[in-house]
Amino acid sequence: MALEKFTNYTPGQPEHWTGRKTNPAIGNQYWYQEIVLKSAEKRPQEKIDIGLLGYASDEGVRRNQGRIGAAQGPDAIRGRLAKMPFHLGHKKVADFGNVFCLGQDMESCQSSFSNHISRLIQQQIFPIGFGGGHDMAYAHFMGIRDAIKDRTNKRIGIVNFDAHFDLRPVEEQPNSGTPFNQIIHELKQINEAVGYYAIGIQDQSNTKELYEIAKREGVNYTSNYDCAPNDSNLSALQQKMLPFIGASDYLYVTIDLDGFSSAYAPGVSAPSPMGFSPFFVVEMLRFLFETNKVISCDIAELNPLFDRDGTTALLAARLVDFMAAIK
Fold this sequence. Notes:
There is one protein chain. The chain is of the alpha/beta class. The chain has a single domain, classed as Arginase, Chain A, CATH 3.40.800. The chain has 10 helices and 10 strands. Strands 1, 2, 3, 4, 5, 6, 7, 8, 9 and 10 form a 10-stranded mixed β-sheet that branches. Helix 3 packs across helix 10, helix 5 runs parallel beside helix 6 and helix 9 packs parallel to helix 10. It is globular.
C-alpha cells in the first residue's frame, strides 16, 4: 500500500506522554520514557513491535443516540498509560497518533483508520487501537482484511468482548451499533467467510431482532451470566471457543468497555452493573493470545466525560499494557 496523506490524522504528540522524573542512572522506568512518537504516513526506520493508534471519533455513537464524548478517549488512555511502569523488556512501542472525524464524516475517518491499520500490519507492527466509538471495529476489520488480502489463508475470526451484538441493520447511516452487521453482509456479497464470537452479551442490551439476526448469521455468543471469573466458567468458554479458533487463520480481538460492570467502567456511553470483570477478560486474553493467531486488537467506547477519577481510562490503559506484554 502506498503511503498517503490524510487531513483527518495527526501523528503521535509529546504532550500526551509525560510523567514523574527519575534518576537517569537507573534507566527508563515508565511508559512515557520508552514510547517513541511516529507518523503512520512514514515508514519507521527502526524495528517497531507494537503500534498504538487512536480512533478519536464519537460520530457513530451520536448517530446511535448514545452519549457523546468518546472522541476524547484515546488521549485519556495515553495520559494514564504514560505514567505506568514499563515492563515490556526490549519491545519497542510507538504512538502513531490519532485519526479523527471532520464534522460528521465518520466514513472518511473509518477509511483513514483502515489504511493505517493495514499499513502497520504490513510492516509487521502489531496494532493496538483505542477509541472512540465501536464503529472503529468496521474500520479495523477492513484494515486487517486489506493487509492480508494476498495471503493464501485469510479467514479472520472476530472476538468481541461486549454487552451488545452491534448487529443492527444499517438504515439511514452506519453507526456504532452496526459494524459487525456491515462486515458480515459485505463479505457475503463477495463470497468471503468471517467468524464472529461475542462474549458478554446481555439480554437487557439486545432486542429480540438482534438475537434473531445473530442466529440467522451463525454468530457465536456467550451470555454475561457465564462470564464470572472462576475456573469453571473460563474453562467451559475456552473449550467452547476451540472450534471457532480452529476455523480461523487470524483473530481480531475487540473490547467494548461497556461490556465491563459499571463498577469497573463507569466512563462509557452505555454503562451496565451486570457486566464482566477485568480479571475475566485478562484470563480470556491470555488464552486467545496463546493461540498465536491474534493479528490485531482494540479497545472501544471510553467516554472520559462520564468517567469517575479516571477509573475507566486506567482500566483501558492497563489492558493495553497487558496485551502489549503478552504479544
